[in-house]
Amino acid sequence: MPEHSELRLPDGVRLHVETTGPVDADVTVILLHGWTLDGRSWHRQLTALHEALGAAVRLVAYDARGHGRSSCMPLRTATLAQLGDDLAAMVDAVAPTGRVVLVGHSMGGMTIMEYAHRHPEHFAARTAGLAFVSTTAEGHTHTVYGLTPRIARLIRLAETAGAGVLARCGSWRPPRALLRALRPSIRWLLFGDHCDATDIRLVTSAVARASLRSIGGFRASIGAQHRLDTLTALAHLPAAALVGDRDRLTPPPCAESIAAALPTTDLTVCPGAGHMLMMERPDVVNGALLGVLGQVLGHPAPDRPAGSGPVAAAPGA
Fold it and tell me: Which residues contact 180 (CB under 8 A, 6 or more apart)?
């Protein structure tokens, strides 16, 4: 059974942590969720990895500051830079020894890049593998929401203005009744051609747990981050990048640029899938994670699951 605990950070913020597996495992897998979500996003991956690898690895999923069951934070710390520092502290707390494999979805992937940028020696000493799911190293460069560039610019202006208002609303949470009314919009924005009803309920529940400060406060640094140069220094690590071709937030060019910076990366593009790839294509994501872990553990990579979609070689690979 998973163990639940809290990590108290130097500024007093408390992070909710869920762990499975032995403390002294040689490899610890840390899974980082996306903006406005929480660690429950990874429930299918946590189950699959535990069933496949058992005590060979320790599994960790935590709620970022201002999200899920973690506490709210001062507005000035609602930045990717702070999330990178939080991840460094998490590595020390949950994996004081052994190797670490980092898996990030959306903002979680950007957090990994920020950790590598801000703590390069710490990162190099501990990190043995990477997986980037529906994320970007180029801020909002490629984000057009599946619309025309002109309309996308208008939406971004409105979103930026709204984020500033929400950021000043402190620890309040979005009203659940409002989120239920917005469920069709959430489904359109985050999912591809098909969406399981339980998944949209989980996502809506996660957004309801995120503080308005975190919903609005993180927007600026998420849009501005550029870390392709940081990634090029990590090309020696086993890595995977996955994206859905219906992803309106981090479309395929985002994953393609990550794969170009990490030439040995296994790039997977899933037809018909949107931003919530770990829910929409759990077998594909699980297979990619097992492939990276197989390299880290010295095992051969597993066969790719049937129906996983085309695999594109990274440009120049």
Answer: 204
